[in-house]
Amino acid sequence: MVAGKVAFVTGAGSGIGREVCRILAKQGAKVIAADRNLENATNTITSLNDPGHLALNVEVSNEQSIQQAFKSAINKYLTPPTIIVNSAGITRDQFILKLSNEDFAKVLDVNLKGTFYVIQTAVKEIVNANIGIGSSIVNVSSIIGKTGNMGQANYAASKAGVIALTQTASLEFGQFGIRVNAVLPGFIETPMTETVPDNVKQLFIQKIPLHRMGKPEEVAEVITFLASSKSSYINGASIEVTGGLH
Ligand code: NAP
Fold it and tell me: Which strand ranges, in their side-by-side order, compose the sheet holding 54-57?
């Protein structure tokens, strides 16, 4: 249900984004792996063993970088991508009283403004090409955007913003046939969570009803479902993939 479509995936050099590329490609999509780390994005594409995919160096907090990436994509595929997955994200954890302006702004710039830039650039191209119907945007938020988390004020605010951005985009783009949804992962085994100390990990795991962390493919499967026409009447939704953690 994604076969033959072109997909643009940010944060594709690692973790959840890399798994999304793998599953979309397995299901027949042409995948553009976009990441600020070109070597990692290239490794994602190389592992797919198909010259039809593309790796691009993209800094999502830089509008020009995104516009350039879409130009390159349209050059190669002669059409804008109609599956967009915003998985690029960062953390800069600190308690509010110690959180620097710089770390607050950096996380908002990448996680929220980056998602906005990609959505705006993609939808302009999709609408210009008149191929909105069947297009799908999936934004990776976080359960932390709903619950908050100590030491993650910047991250929680950015991810709450992604939920609100998703809802608003779904209202504005329904007229073009473009769906916009968010996934809210819980605690997932990726490089992002590798640095969490073991004792803190154990505390979190105890609170998860399934008593384990999630795997990146368990999130990527849901993202692929939302990207595909199998979810054709799901729009403006935020789907939790948390093992039951709220
Ligand atoms: P990850 O393994 O760190 O992957 C994130 C990827 O995004 C990395 O390749 C990273 O590059 C890239 N990236 C970061 N900033 C970028 C930028 N400005 N422009 C382009 N690419 C950029 O993390 P992940 O766990 O897969 O996270 C994917 C998404 O899921 C994120 O939005 C994250 O907030 C969200 N999420 C994760 C969890 C979890 O438990 N892992 C839970 C909830 C939500 P570098 O390697 O160079 O940083």
Answer: 54-57, 30-35, 6-10, 83-86, 136-140, 179-185, 238-241
Non-local (6+) Cβ contacts of 33 within 8 A are 9, 12, 13, 17, 18, 21, 41, 42, 44, 45, 53, 54, 55, 56
Core vs surface per residue 88-118: b (16+ CB within 10 A) or e: bbbbbbeeeeebeeebbebbbbbbbbbbbbb
Active site residues per annotation = 155
End-to-end CA distance of the chain: 31
- Which atom of ligand 1 is the closest one to the Cα of 12? 9
Q: What is the pTM of this model?
A: 0.98
Reference 50, options 32, 35, 38, 34; nearest CA is: 32
Give the C-alpha distances (Å, rounded to integers) separating 77 from 70, 71, 201: 10, 10, 43
Give the residue extent of every domain in the chain: 6-241
Q: What is the pLDDT of residue 153?
A: 98
Query: Ligand 1: which atom is nearest the Cα of residue 40?
Result: 9
Name residue, tokens 């951005």.
165
Q: How far apart are CA 115 and CA 104, in angstroms?
A: 16
Give domain 6-241's CATH architecture.
3-Layer(aba) Sandwich (3.40)
Low-confidence ranges of the chain (pLDDT < 70): none
60 C-beta closer than 6 A to ligand 1:
yes
